[in-house]
What does this fold into?
Amino acid sequence: CGNYGSIKATKDTAGGIISYANGSAARTLTIKGCINDGDVTGGCESSGILGYMNNTTASTVNACVNTGHITTTDTGETPVALYFFRSDEATADNNKNNFYLAGCASGEARLGKTGVIEFNPTSGTAFEYGEVCYKLNQALGEEVFFQTIGTDRIPTFDSSAKKVVFENGEYKNPAPASGGSGTTPVTGDPLTVVAIIAVAAIILTGAALVIRRKFSK
It folds into this structure.
C-alpha cells in the first residue's frame, strides 16, 4: 500500500498506512512493502506507518518506507517516523529493512518495555539515487518498487518506471539493450561483400539489357 496525501487527526493515533490495529495471538499484524510520503499530524501515538498496535503478540513491519513529516499536537508525546507498538515482543527479526527520511520526526519508534528494532535513518540522496529502492526489493525478494533515477524522487509502485540494479558499487537503472534496430548486421570480409554486390549489379544490368533488346524487336 502507498499513501501520498496529508493526514490530519483531531485526536490520537494517526498513521500514514494504518491508524490503529488491535490483534490477538490468532490475528497478528503484518505490514510489508508499504510507503508513506504524506505528512501526518495527530495527537499522541502518531507515526508514519502505524499509529498504534494494541497487541500482546509479536507483529511484523518489514520493508516499509516513510518520507512524510510527522508532528503531534500532544505536548507530552513524541512523533515517530515508523510505528508505535504496545507489545513487549517487538523484535528486530520481525521488524527490519524499514527506512525513513532522516529528520522527518523527533523519534524512530515507540515500543513496549522491551524490544530491539532495526532502524535505517536515510538521507534524501539515498532515496533519490536508488539505494532504498534496491534494498527494499532485496528484502522483499521480488520487484515491488521501481524508480527512474533522475526523475523519481522516491521509489514507486509504477512499473513503467525502471528497475534499479547494483553494479560496480553503484545503484543505477540497467542500460538499454544494444542493437535497437533489430536488423542482422552484415558480417565477413568487407572487400568480399563489395565484390558480391558488384557482381550482382552486373548480372542484373545484363538481364535488363537482354529484356530491353527482346522487347525492341
Q: What stands out?
A: The first strand starts at residue 2 and ends at 3. Confidence is low (pLDDT under 50) at residues 180-199, 207-217. Residues 4 and 38 are 5 Å apart (CA to CA). Residues 190-216 form the longest helix (27 residues).
